[in-house]
Amino acid sequence: xxxxxxxxxxxxxxxxxxxxxxxxxxxxxxxxxxxxxxxxxxxxxxxxxxxxxxxxxxxxxxxxxxxxxxxxxxxxxxxxxxxxxxxxxxxxxxxxxxxxxxxxxxxxxxxxxxxxxxxxxxxxxxxxxxxxxxxxxxxxxxxxxxxxxxxxxxxxxxxxxxxxxxxxxxxxxxxxxx
Length: 178
Hints:
Radius of gyration: 16 Å
Strand content: 15-25%
Number of helices: 4
Number of strands: 6
Mean pLDDT: 75
Helix content: 25-40%
Largest sheet: 2 strands, antiparallel
Structural class: alpha+beta
């Protein structure tokens, strides 16, 4: 069935966009600026009620984001906070997982001068702005450059994947594995 995967992909897109917008705000603060993150309770989940949302964008450059359309989603649970770089690094260290961006050798990075997303060779969760950047000093920042496949693998590892297709419980799930 395509509908459960479509809905899950839409939810992941929404979570990714929220995280990306947050990340853009942090980056826009300028180089060397360090956000002050409060310590978080990791793993606490909240319920999101059933509802309809608009998925896609009629003006998007990528065909897989068009057209905008209404999608109904049944209720689901999601972690209260985004997955941090440290949490994703722990998952990678314990499993040897290689992310989609690492496999293909590139990801999209926002260019503030050109005000657009650019395909950037070498960009991945470890190098968020591409070669020469790193997550050093960004341990509590939300992990970025995470695909649907990466989020699903992480959620299975974290024990937060429901497995039905309707309630993925994964979107930026935070792990609490020791």
